[in-house]
Amino acid sequence: MKRDYSAHFAIILDTLTQSLSKLNCPEGLKENVLHTITQNTIGGKGTRGKAVLESVKVLLGTELTDDMHEKSCLLGWIVEMLQGSFLVADDIMDKSLTRRGRPCWYLQVGTSRAFTEAVMMENLVFVLLRLFFRDQPYYKELLDTFHEILLQTETGQEMDLILSIGGVPMNTSFSLKAYEFIVTYKTAYYSFYLPIKCAMILVGMKEKQAYVDAKRLAVQLGRYFQFQDDFLDCYGDSNVVGKIGTDIRERKCTWLICYALYKASPEERELLLSNYGKHDMESENTIKKLYNDLKMTDLYDELEHLFIKDIGREIQQLDETTGLKRAAFEILFRKMQKRKK
User: Fold this and answer.
1) Which DSSP string corresponds to 170-232?
2) In the predicted model, is pLDDT for residue 341 greater than 90?
3) Each residue of 236-256: pLDDT tens digit?
4) Taking the CB of residue 131, how many other CB atoms lie within 10 A of it?
5) CATH code of the domain containing 272
6) DSSP state at residue 63
7) Is 30 among the domain residues?
8) How many domains does the chain have?
9) pTM, two decimal places
10) What is the C-alpha to C-alpha distance for residues 62 and 118, in angstroms, rounded to an integer?
11) Domain span at residue 35?
């Protein structure tokens, strides 16, 4: 078990069981909490959590001790649990229907309970950090990192939510600048910078420039990832992606709508503004037809080619004298290219 990343989730559950027991939680409540955590932490690709372990291996460049391997696996699962709490809350706000091939959690247990459980999962992340890492010299740095990432993610989520409500006019608020802010704060920091920074902290990296470089590359990877997500929400196979796309109906500020508004004729622009964010199939189909008329799939291919070229160049130009390694980013980058889910 010591070398099995997946098996360390059992340690997470055992530790949480003990913590909840100390709070004198009734057995039924404790079982519900553990079930919620299990259902919303496992079942995905696990990319963020595994990235902690993979990055630690790359940065050290040697066989990990049992202690370092265990700490890397546990911290990876804590990152995954934080991700789970974000997804539960995000699905409520986006009125999503499916997640990982199943009905969204709020549709299974109700909105109020799902919201409470998202908050509880977030709080239990810090319980786990304390229990596993409080004796480590880098404990405060880990805490500061998780608090900072939480604030950044919730700031991006707030911006995303504000732009999606009907009272904000699309023609003045939907822009690539606004979109890039949302993507950077809502997605890039927690999805890519958090796992890599956790690995850097675990191995004791102190060079400030390494953290600057890691954040810059993480943001680029995050923007590429969300660029793909936006496209898959509209054009992907829901059976493959694992969720039904709702961006058009929920009036999401995606690169697709931003570019469409920029490229459209006055007549097409009027159709975009009058149909985007409407909860009926006719309006959604009108938007998709406009996307097709504006050749958004061709634009996707062009932009993806640029993303791959630019990110690849940035990774190759990374200064490894700071202790940061190109391979840590190459592993994540390879997994993302041309993905279908």
Assistant:
1) HHHH--HHHHHHHIIIIIIIIIIIHHHHHHHHHTT---HHHHHHHHHHHHHHHHHHHHHHHHH
2) no
3) 988 888 888 999 999 999 999
4) 13
5) 1.10.600.10
6) P
7) yes
8) 1
9) 0.94
10) 37
11) 8-336
